[in-house]
Amino acid sequence: MAVLSIRPKAPRSPAPSRNKPVRGRRKAVGALFAVPALALFLVFAIYPMLRVFYLSLFDYSLTSPPEFVGFENFTYLATDPQFGAALWQTVVYAAGTYVPALALALVLAHALNTRTRGSGLLRLLYFLPVAISWVAVSVIWRVVLNPDGLLNQALGLHLNWLTSSGSAMWGLVVMGVWKETGFFLILFLAGLQSIPDELHEAARLDGAGAFARFRYVTWPMLLPVTAVCSVMAVIRGFQAFSPQLVLTNGGFGTQVVNLFVYKTAFENARMGRASAVAVLMFLLLFGLTLLQLKVFARRDR
Amino acid sequence: MAEHGIRSLRHIRTAGAAILAALLAAATLSACGGDESGGAVTLKFWTHTHPPMIKLNQTLIAEYERQHPNVRIEYQQVPNDEFDTKMLTSMSNGTGPDVLNLDDTTLRGEYLPKRLLAPIDYGALGTGSADELKARYLPRTLDGASADNELYGLPSEFNATAFAVNTQHFADAGLDPDAPPKTWQDVAADARKLSGAGHTQAFSFLYLHSGWYTQQLQTLLNETGGTITDPGHQKATVTSPQAQAALKIWTDLATGAGRAADPNRTSREATSPFSDLATGRQSMAIVYPWAMEQIRESNPDTFAKLKLVPLPQVNPAKPVNRWYGYYWGVSRASEHQQQAWQFIAYLASQSQRWLSDVKFIQPVKGWDTSAAGKQVPGLDVWSAAYRQGKFDEVAPHFAEIKDAVMAMVNDTVFDHVAIPEASRKAAETIDRSLGS
Questions:
Q1: Considering the domain boundaries, does residue A41 fall inside one?
Q2: Which of A229, B258, B265, B366 is an S-S bond match for B252, by CB 3.0 to 4.6 Å?
Q3: What is the count of structural domains for chain A?
Q4: Which of A282, A76, A114 is nearest to B432 (CA)?
């Protein structure tokens, strides 16, 4: 075994008194290499986050000095029907888009897991929408969703998808599922391909059918990937912005939280209030992520 | 080795001295650049995008720079839908322009209350006083850029509102273009006949963004006597009978008994707002002088069929029009305010060229009797409209109020919410905005 090992043989350990300063120096050099990345992270990630926390305690219109108001922005939001509606619309969009997208991705990943003729092309086709920007996709889907558009023609309907509170959100959801399924498909496919064939073989020899193999072999082995997909789905769902801006500008019950933040900050010049929303969303997403990780960790056990 | 080190040290010293000299020279030059007593001055000038306007601005800038070799104008055009955001953020971080061009609602709603603009420098403009300046313009037309009896801008374009009808469509429907609709009920009646003749998009309001929604509702509010808020901007008044009457006119024409077009099929392209009228899809539209010029340039065949008529009224015996204007102003943060006003004085002195080249009417007295004014199509209609106008009201946090107005119209037109319910919901949003 030692001969087959690819790990280089560790040198005989030198005297502890000589080794300590060398290891310390190595650590210092290593830390020095991390400094530029750390500095960038502090400047472009940590500082803006802290700044947003700070600004959320002020009334600030961009053009006049900030005025300290304590938690007033948060108490305002607690009773603001527009913020409540935006939060609800975000939940509807996130759930409506990502639950079907994840389910569809899992099914398609299974179908495409075995290499057959054309499976490579199909993988590419499913992934293609992921590579297109949200703005471009939105412009394309405007043609699909307009009253004379392809969707109505295909379904034999005459819905005004983007100009009615009853349908605008569902138009965006349909588009979102189309755009996002490919992303999760690739992740699930990678997860499926990492499952050793031996496990399926053993289960088959034990007489397990296709469903049993999925239930007792594939699904448990896919849990880590599913956890990642689930966390990412929630984050991506709550990050929704571009299609709502391009297609409806937040009208007809499609004003998601990020669009609400953008409008509050840059159109209505209420930076403090917008920052308070950002803080709340950060806390909410942080909590949801922890919760999901905990749930998946328990299942993994 | 030692010699090499010394040589390197010398090189470093020489290079250091050169850098220091360059920095000192740059600092001196930069100090000269900011000197207002004859040194070079760079003025940043921002406008929105409108090709004919940009072309004339570029010509005037070149002329001005030739006449004033010490002044350089950095001209930047900002896309219309990004204009407010970019302007506000740039003003907040000190990278904004010296000379800016803004519409009157933005000026009165955001910039003047926040003291972002410098008052007019009458000396730089070559006038002695506000009264002397006002005497050059039609009455009340400078009010769009005034606050607390102080003036902050000169009009680059000034728009009254009129109505355009497609004479070909009217002929198809057996209507007489010389007897155009005088009231909104007439518009609905004519629309029925136009629809019968195959012109199904007879008349539609434009559903572009909250600014467009608000200005069109304001046009109707001026006629019904309604308002969006009370005079002190303490509370919303969109639930008043007059305001609801204005919304009813809109809703009736969009989806009600007087339905004049399908609002879902109205063009929503904000960069070309009048494309339905210009391409001959729509038979009648509310228009402004610049819109007619845009159609003349882009669709001359349709333009030849359009007839300009007075805006339909609730009470034709007492016509009321809607005004709005764009004004040149100077940032309070500008270090070259005097030069900026001198540049504006030059731009404003070319009102005949603005009229002939861009069809921007600047409301100077006698514009309609000038050589260029006499060439304006529909002169009699515009001339009357420029005497019957009213600026939009603006209130604090006007952007939020415009959003509430848009939601109210969308509720009634697209979601078929009853007018009292939609206006009550809008009033709650507006009240909340005014009170916070």
A1: no
A2: B258
A3: 1
A4: A76
